[in-house]
Design goal:
The protein is an alpha+beta fold. The chain has four domains: 47 residues, no CATH class; 200 residues, no CATH class; 363 residues, Glycosyltransferase (Alpha/alpha barrel), CATH 1.50.10.10; 98 residues, Immunoglobulin-like (Sandwich), CATH 2.60.40. The protein has 20 helices and 38 strands. Strands 6, 7, 8, 9, 10, 11, 16 and 20 form an eight-stranded antiparallel β-sheet that branches. Strands 12, 13, 14, 15, 17, 18, 19 and 21 form an eight-stranded antiparallel β-sheet that branches. The radius of gyration is 29 Å and the shape is globular. InterPro entries: 6-hairpin_glycosidase_sf, 6hp_glycosidase-like_sf. This is Cellobiose phosphorylase.
Length: 823
């Protein structure tokens, strides 16, 4: 095919009933449009080459596409990703599960948005995502500024670590001027010994009102107002801080420390001080003019009498500054009792409290210690900000500073199920059911219109994990209302002439009230999962809902095909061109590539809609199949233009492509995204995730939960009636002597335990799997990539496929699998 005139508008073409489009002025003889999937080449009119000649020339002159480059490369690693990526340090959040009284801690100004605070280490009490205001600070947010060491200089030796790599207990070390400073910080009740029976929690609706972006009905607002007045905890939560300074030189050295100074957030001057020193030297406390105590302070077990400490330490000697800072100031008699609590005993209780949390959940151990720690820390991070009243009341699965969202809370809830905590998943789902509107609508955050649909997905996933028939019967009436809401919206779209009867609504922060594929894909998926639940308790409803899902799926696919037909082809690095698609129907191709006056740059990227809310969601939502040709082209286009190192820009966990790569068996592409994303978005020391690359929204548990789900999928992934083990595990994890262990995790097939142990000499590995015999899959496919690429020479049982490095096994009657693989 030739093209003589090259207008600047988008030109529609059709080849063998396949429609597509291109910008005709982008066609050149040097770089013709070669589309091998359609068997066509488009070039200039003076080009006398045929298709085969053009294809040969393009192949000879071109390199590799982005995905081809990844496929040809060595498997990615954390070290490789961290060496070339951003390093985002973040504040650390400390608190106790269920209770919205949190403390944020930052060091050397990290996480502070105000220039005057960037010269300090700092502590900020929070009501979940909302800074705490005090009467003493004129009802403005308060922040406590302190310092450990001489101050800011040319070197920063501060290192931070969670206790044991995962517990919400912070250990900090700083070397300065010959002094080693060690800080330990944690949260405990003011006076009650902490154990797993301690009554904790905040009513979920009260938390909701202190979360950014929350949405209330009038009745919910009235209940929040009542709770604000009536909910009065009997005691404060307290941040315990110990600063320990040790002279590590052979000569006397001075240690410098400054006790916290309360400031209105962002202000240069401190809040009122009744005494010149700011401290009551007899009480060892900072007492506000109101008479309330901001915190207690002791130096080597004696009341601190001055905020600034300069102690001359002999070689090897130490001094210790202890701070106990209540979330809100307390009366002096209570402060005296708090000051006298024994630090080590309280710390031991807090350690035991968090270790008990881990003991009640699944264990995941991999040869990479960082990831083992991040999985454990991640579960506790989710638990920390999932609020409600124990032992059995509704929980709010918040996402960083924000209120729960049906879409963004989904991976949190689904990881609770995966990690063997279906109780937390069920109580978190109740949040969306308890706040459901009378017409079935669910909307809890920022005007988002996809919560109803996404919540149905999570409800269905919970049922897949648990097969809890009694629960299914209990929630079915609310599911019925939610389905009714979706179908009424669908009918309204038809009546108002929306093409294909697609649902219309905003799916993220930008005000984009369009027929997005993400919204409609969630509706297809939500209706499908609703039908699965109904199958168990009401077959007639199940049939109607499944038919509605399939009908919508057909319309979405038709709309998507129409959108692709009107979207421009784009070039890849190998010289070929592929088809693209817009994020919603009715727009000609990727928004960032449009040639009009529209402005799409937002949230730090031109691709916020095309990538983060783009059409690849249709694969996760089971509208498109992972293996179909359009999926292949969308992945290629995204990797080439929308992604860097196969990682989406700005808010990478909003792109579902890593799971798609796993389902397609594209391990290198998955690992490139997996490692790049968490190595650059999570704090490398404390593992807390940011939402965006521009330090927006700390402790973002939506992002952390997607990391956890990606880790879960790389270790075990359902595929119809087959369970795939280690579908994305790196080769390095199967080096001699290495072990991968899963214990107590859950899948669609029930509880799962699995161990893959490589012999110390590397000559063989052993596979041990235990499944629920009542729910076991038809077969288990174990991917066993040899660390140096060798193929197995024999196996003790099962069918080995050398091409895919997989061993397929069938569970015995007891749900057990045993196999040895020889190299």
């Amino acid at each position: 095919m030739t093209w003589d005139e090259r207008p600047t508008e988008l030109v529609q073409l059709s080849i063998d009933d396949t429609e597509f489009a291109l910008w005709a002025d982008q066609v050149t003889r040097e770089h013709p449009v070669l589309v091998p999937t359609l068997g066509i080449a488009i070039t200039c009119g003076d080009d006398d080459r045929d298709y085969l000649a053009i294809a040969a020339d393009v192949t000879r002159r071109s390199g590799l596409s982005a995905l081809q480059t990844l496929d040809a490369a060595d498997e990615h690693s954390y070290t490789a990703a961290a060496s070339r990526g951003r390093r985002l340090h973040s504040p650390t959040w400390l608190g106790l599960s269920r209770d919205m009284r949190l403390f944020a801690l930052g060091f050397n100004g990290v996480g502070s948005g105000n220039a005057s605070e960037r010269i300090w280490d700092w502590i900020a009490p929070q009501w979940h995502g909302e800074a705490t205001a005090l009467a003493e600070s004129d009802e403005l947010p308060v922040r406590y500024l302190y310092m450990m060491g001489r101050g800011l200089g040319p070197h920063d030796s501060t290192t931070r670590r969670l206790r044991g790599g995962c517990l919400p207990i912070l250990d900090v070390t700083r070397h300065d001027g010959g002094i080693r400073y060690d800080l330990t910080a944690f949260v405990a009740p003011e006076r009650t010994p902490l154990d797993d029976m301690t009554s904790l929690g905040t009513p979920f609706l009260l938390v909701d009102g202190h979360s950014a972006g929350h949405m209330f009905t009038d009745a919910q607002q009235a209940e929040f107002d009542r709770l604000t007045t009536d909910h009065a905890p009997a005691e404060e939560l307290v941040l315990f801080v110990r600063m320990h300074a040790t002279n590590v030189t052979a000569v006397p050295r001075y240690a410098f420390m400054k006790a916290p100074e309360p400031h209105r957030a962002g202000a240069d001057t401190p809040i009122d001080k009744p005494l010149d020193s700011g401290l009551d030297p007899l009480a060892g406390a900072l007492v506000f003019g109101s008479g309330r105590v901001a915190y207690t302070a002791t130096l080597d077990d004696r009341p601190l009498h001055t905020e600034e400490v300069a102690s001359l330490l002999q070689p090897g000697s130490s001094t210790t500054l202890d701070i106990r800072l209540p979330h809100r100031p307390i009366p002096l008699p209570r402060a005296s009792a708090l000051r006298d609590r024994e630090f080590d005993g309280v710390l031991a209780d807090v350690e035991a409290f968090w270790m008990n949390k881990l003991s009640t959940a699944a264990t995941i151990e991999v040869p990479e210690r960082r990831i083992t720690e991040m999985v454990a820390a991640g579960l506790l991070h989710l638990d920390l900000v999932t609020y409600g009243e124990d032992p059995d009341q509704t929980l709010a699965p918040t996402i960083g500073i924000y209120a729960p969202i049906g879409s963004e809370s989904a991976p949190i809830i689904q990881y609770f199920d995966s990690a063997g905590r279906p109780d937390l998943a069920e109580r978190s789902l109740r949040y969306f059911l308890d706040k459901q509107h009378d017409d079935g609508f669910m909307q809890n955050f920022g005007g988002y219109m996809l919560e109803t649909e996404a919540t149905l997905w999570s409800l269905g996933e919970h049922f897949r994990y648990t097969r809890d028939l009694a629960w299914a019967a209990t929630v079915l009436p609310q599911i019925d209302r939610a389905v009714g809401y979706i179908l009424r919206n669908r009918e309204q779209s038809r009546e108002t002439g929306v093409p294909y009867g697609l649902l219309v609504g905003k799916t993220s922060d930008p005000e984009d009230p369009f027929a997005s594929f993400m919204l409609n894909g969630y509706a297809v998926l939500g209706l499908s999962r609703a039908a699965e639940i109904a199958d168990a308790v009401d077959v007639d409803r199940a049939g109607r809902w499944r038919a509605a899902s399939e009908e919508l799926k057909a319309d979405v696919r038709a709309a998507f095909a129409d959108a692709v037909a009107h979207s421009p082809l784009v070039p890849l690095g190998d010289g070929t061109w592929v088809r693209t698609a817009p994020p919603w129907h009715g727009h000609g191709g990727p928004l960032a590539l449009r040639r009009d006056t529209s402005k799409w740059y937002t949230h730090g990227t031109f691709f916020a809609r095309d990538s983060l809310n783009g059409p690849l969601w249709l694969v996760l939502q089971e509208v498109l199949d992972p293996s179909e040709q359009l999926t292949t082209e969308l992945l290629a286009y995204a990797a080439e233009i929308l992604h860097e190192d196969n990682t989406a820009l700005s808010q990478p966990y909003y792109s579902p492509h890593p799971l798609i790569h796993l389902r397609r068996g594209e391990v290198n592409a998955f690992l490139r995204s997996y490692y790049t994303t968490f190595a650059t978005l999570a704090d490398p020391e404390t593992y807390s995730f940011w939402e965006h690359y521009f330090h927006a929204s700390p402790h973002k548990t939506h992002e952390e939960a997607w990391f956890l789900m990606q880790t879960r999928w790389m270790l075990y992934l359902e595929d119809g009636d087959r369970l795939r083990l280690l579908p994305g595990a790196p080769r390095a994890w199967l080096a001699p002597g290495q072990r991968i262990r899963l214990n107590g995790v859950r899948s669609y097939f029930g509880p799962l335990a699995a161990t893959i142990q490589v012999h110390s000499g590397g000559s063989f590995l052993d596979i041990s799997v235990h499944l629920d015999p009542q729910r076991a899959p038809r077969e288990v496919q174990v991917r066993i990539p040899h660390h140096s690429g060798r193929r197995a020479r024999s196996v003790s049982s099962g069918r080995y496929d050398a091409a895919t490095e997989t061993l397929t096994l069938e569970p015995d009657a007891g749900g057990d699998i045993r196999a040895r693989v020889y190299y």
